[in-house]
Amino acid sequence: MAGPYLQQPSFLLATLKADCVNKPFAQRCHDLETVIEEFPAKELHGIFPWLVESIFGSLDGIIVGWNLRCLQGRTNPTEYSVALDFLDPSGPMMKLVYKLQAEEYRYDFPVSYLPGPVKASIQEQVLPECSLYHNKVQFTSSGGLDLNLALNPFEYYMFYFAISLITQKNSPITHHISPSNSAYFILVDTYLKCFLPTEGSVLPPPSSNPGGAIPSPTPRSPAVPFTSYGMHHTSLLKRHIAHQPSVNADPASQEIWRSETLLQIFVEMWLHHYSLEMYQKMQSPHVKESFKPTEEHVLVVRLLVKHLHAFSNSLKPEPLSPSAHSHTASPLEEFKRVVIPRFVQQKLYIFLQHCFGHWPLDASFRAVLEMWLSYLQPWRYAPEKPPQTAELLPRSVSEKWAAFIQENLLMYTKLFVGFLNRTLRTDLVSPKNALMVFRVAKVFAQPNLAEMILKGEQLFLEPELVIPHRQHRLFMTPTLGGSFFSSWPPTITDASFKVKSHVYSLEGQDFQYKQMFGTEVRNLVLKLAQLICQAQQTAKSISDHSAETMASHSFFSWFKFTPSEMNGSYTGNDLDEIGQDSIKKTDEYLEKALEYLCQIFKLNEAQLTQMMMKCGTAQDENGKKQLPDCIESENGLILTPLGRYQMINGLRRFDVQYQGDTELQPIRSYENATLVRLLYRLSSALNERFAEQMDVLCSREDFIGRFCCYHLTNPHFVHKIRYSPVLKDRTNQNWGPRISLRFLASYRTLFSLLMLYFIASWFYIGPVGCTFIILFSYFLYAVIMTFFFEGRKPHEH
């Protein structure tokens, strides 16, 4: 009987693999649900690793799995609904997890796929401080040097779920997919709400045996040290999973072990890609970046941060009596109290530091910015609601958040300085960049927030001599990432010591703190204010230029019937394509940001007004952009670093124009090269053949003469040749009246003519009639232009 029974799992696995090829997705999930309900745990044990991999993909990214990150209800409603139901915390997959959990099965997870700092630590035989890895590291059964983690079914499932966000980077994601609407994003939110509830307690797992209980994994024994870095190498080998004590029914661990495990896995897989030592090394520009988070990754982390704030803020008010607190507080309530400082703060800080220093200088940084701002504002996720009468007024930050701000001081101050340094290198004329400056300034300008940050800085800078009894103590924090049930030092009541402990634990004892409200950062803010003024003037110049262009160009300019663009030197900006509304938005964002910065840093209004006047008077009389910042030398003008920055970001430009014959300009990207050459030959032949006749026509004093003079000559080019001996000597061609046909080589012109002929054929006008309409319309346009611009003069430059 033993032989056939042992063959059942492989037969079941083979059947399920065949179903993946032959059956539709919904049918496969229904069959899996039936298998999970009817088969015993011993047989399901053999298919569990394959099933997890087939859902979340392989660790090397080759197998995509269900591709939950691209699965959306709008595009695939049936598969989306089936997948969410199957993976729901009360769905078939979690029932399978709990069924295997009851039998205490273990599954191997390769250490080589863990985040970089964890993998390096374990491979060096140093146990990481996070209790998630304790008593789990073991060698492979083959006796090689590869290491595995022996995980219980719940841990194994969540490891694969969390790491699929990282390993499946190369999966085909189209641009129209919104990460926040994907099945993966919804599942993250569902698991957080289930295992880290803001109301009530964690729902108990379903039991396959009536009256039975699903045991929790081994409680984290306080005897196991959690500052394991630097321990003797042989100690790692003694922490084999087989030597762990037997599972017992600890009521506290039974209540929240899944909550703690879920949070630790999410934090380790999503945030622990940079250790403090690695982060300090990454400050060098010569060090190659080891891990690059994606925008989707950051959005998921923001979801985690927002929920943890809500979870922590749902903590019940403390009783007045300390003795009553010790008897009535549940493990879940105690977990809420320490969840952010103990499990998240350090790893999130290093993660944000890396993003601020290495993220591309483009609009995608908005995701990182919003995640940072979400962490800085836990009051947004507090259960209490602001008074309805004060909805239109800025909500003042309550004093009860002072402790959070002080214990997260670097999150506010050092990252703000990092944001300033990024902003000084970006183009603030762009609406998206202007919006980011506005968002940060608005958050930090909330009433009472700047004062509390300043108070935190004062506590940190408080001389140590003021409190003699603290001089012998080292600034240490409780172990970050340790188990909730491990020993926890007594609460530190001294506010100054708390702030110093926070700063030195994140940056080290030798850290040189840069005050947010000090002189150095204030100078950076003044530079930013100056750039904001310059960006406002630049946006105004672009707006004025766009308005002038729209006013001076008629409907026919869209068809390239006028060659004026060939002589223009304006290079434009992305605002030209966005439109006037976005230009106004940019100006509004920058104006409000400047106002908020003045509120935060108490900037001198007279100094700011003088700076704005200086920026305003720096514009030339035509409202165009001034030249980049330069210095004069023997060899002419040389760009300064500020001038290079201005040119790179499009804030200022040199007025470079083509100085030769407009007919001989380089072929543009919007022109057909073959047509340009053919039309040039044709126009040259016509000009050579009818040169004398055109001279006679242009010399007439009547309307015909004025008409021909306007449309057959290029006054701007003639003016340049006439007053430039160099150009006069180099130009051998006739610069009198001539015909120019190059505008017909524009793709836009060709497309316009094609559309006109298509419309004409639709109304049965015919090609001849359409040609007549075009020529007659252009003739009317030429006559009007002749009358209105008869005395036009070439622009002086």
UniProtKB/TrEMBL annotation:
It is a single-pass membrane protein. One of its GO terms (molecular function) is sphingomyelin phosphodiesterase D activity. Pfam families: mit_SMPDase. The chain crosses the membrane at residues 747-765, 771-789. The keyword Amino-acid biosynthesis does not apply. GO terms for cellular component: membrane. Keywords: Membrane, Transmembrane, Transmembrane helix. It is found in: Membrane. PANTHER family: SPHINGOMYELIN PHOSPHODIESTERASE 4. This is Sphingomyelin phosphodiesterase 4. GO terms for biological process: ceramide biosynthetic process; glycerophospholipid catabolic process; sphingomyelin catabolic process. InterPro entries: Sphingomy_SMPD4.
